[in-house]
Amino acid sequence: MELAVLLLVVAVTVFIFTWLLVSRALLLQAKQIQKERLKSRVGLASQYSSESRRYSKCWWCTIGRIIGPKNSKDIEVTQQQLVSAGFRGENHIGAYFFLKYSVILATALIMMSLWSWYGVRLELVILAPIVVMLLPERVLIYLGNKRQAEINTHLPDFLDMCNICMNAGLSYLVAIKRVSKELKTVHPEVCFEFEYLLDQIQIGVPRTEALRQFAQRNPAKDIQNLVQVLIQNEKLGSSIGEALSEFSRRMYQTREQLLEEKAAKTSAKMAVVIMPFLMMPYLILLVGERMVLLGRGF
């Protein structure tokens, strides 16, 4: 018991000392980085200055960047998972690593305390931090898959509304902006992605590069196909309205075929469940008479 209390006091002391030691230096470094970004993003100074103020207050996000992995490949994978789940802010990756390691440390201390006070099995003490270490990544992947599924579900409706606006005389960028504004409360995820695409184009990113980044942020198959269609129309100069209409029609046909396939498989799946209930009365009727005769001695 004394050992567990001593470890808990030492861990809390080290954490507070580390925070007091590095927080000021890290916050100054974060402010300097934001100033450099402001210089390279002319026209969005107010937006990025507000982000800088929010980032400077998030001291634990900055500490998370420091204690996180240094391998660029691991950071890129984690960043892609965060973006797919809808967390694309400057401070989200730092917040993720800080929360992850904080929960691991807290779980380890709690399990050690339980082992010291109540005699919990040592296997559980070792297994619990490992499970907690793997859990955040699985949760992040689940959130990303769920968000991408919502985008795929709402994409045909979004494209149909864009086709209506383009048939009324709007260009496809203006149509996307108008539809994103109108459907924001109904389909927020897909509208947010297209608004981000428009913001990139407005600050000077080439359309082809912005579309490629759009596909990178959303690795769903339908988004990839849509980006290929738009890039091809950018290069060839053909009608985007007709391409989007044809693409939307193909999406509906594909989904109709998938529904028909699922409906065809339903009877076979139900047979596996229904068959035991059908066979049981038949076996009772078939064998019951013989069992009664055997019981009577015939």
UniProtKB/TrEMBL annotation:
Residues 158-287 form the Type II secretion system protein GspF domain. It comes from the Bacteria. It comes from Thiomicrorhabdus lithotrophica. This is Type II secretion system F family protein. The chain crosses the membrane at residues 6-27, 98-118, 124-143, 270-288. The keyword Transmembrane applies. It is a multi-pass membrane protein. It is found in: Cell membrane. The keyword rRNA processing does not apply. Keywords: Cell membrane, Membrane, Transmembrane, Transmembrane helix. InterPro entries: T2SS_GspF_dom (IPR018076).
